[in-house]
Design a protein that fits this description.
The chain is mainly alpha-helical and about 100 residues long. It is built from five helices and no strands. It holds the Pfam family dnstrm_HI1420.
Length: about 100
C-alpha cells in the first residue's frame, strides 16, 4: 500500500491578488475575537505573499523588525500596522457594529 504524502498547508500560496489578501485579512479580523496577535500573524502571511523585502522597503521598516512584529509572538504598534497596510496596498475601514448606539 502506498503512503499518502501530505504537504503542510500554507495560506501564502493562495494569496495571489490584492482582493484575496483583503478578503483574507477581513476574515481574520472577523474571526479574531479581539486577538491582536492573530491579526498580526495574518498581516505577516500577506506580507510574505507579497514579499517581505518589498513590504519592508515600502513601509520603511527593516525586514527583521517586520518578521518580529508580524510573527504573532508580539503585538505590533498601531503605527507599524498602518505602515504595513499601506505597503500592502490595503486600507483600514470601519463600520458600526450591532453594539453601536443610534
Amino acid at each position: 500500500m502506498k503512503k499518502t504524502i501530505i504537504s503542510p498547508y500554507d495560506v501564502v500560496e493562495h494569496l495571489r491578488t490584492p482582493k484575496e489578501m483583503a478578503l483574507y485579512l477581513q476574515a481574520c479580523i472577523e474571526e479574531s475575537n479581539g486577538d491582536a496577535a492573530f491579526i498580526a500573524r495574518a498581516l505577516g502571511d500577506i506580507a510574505r505573499a507579497k514579499g517581505m523585502a518589498q513590504v519592508a522597503k515600502e513601509s520603511g521598516l527593516s525586514r527583521e523588525s517586520l518578521y518580529k512584529a508580524l510573527s504573532g509572538d508580539r503585538i505590533p504598534g498601531f503605527d507599524t500596522v498602518l505602515k504595513v497596510l499601506a505597503a500592502l496596498g490595503l486600507s483600514l475601514h470601519t463600520k458600526p457594529t450591532s453594539k453601536a448606539r443610534a
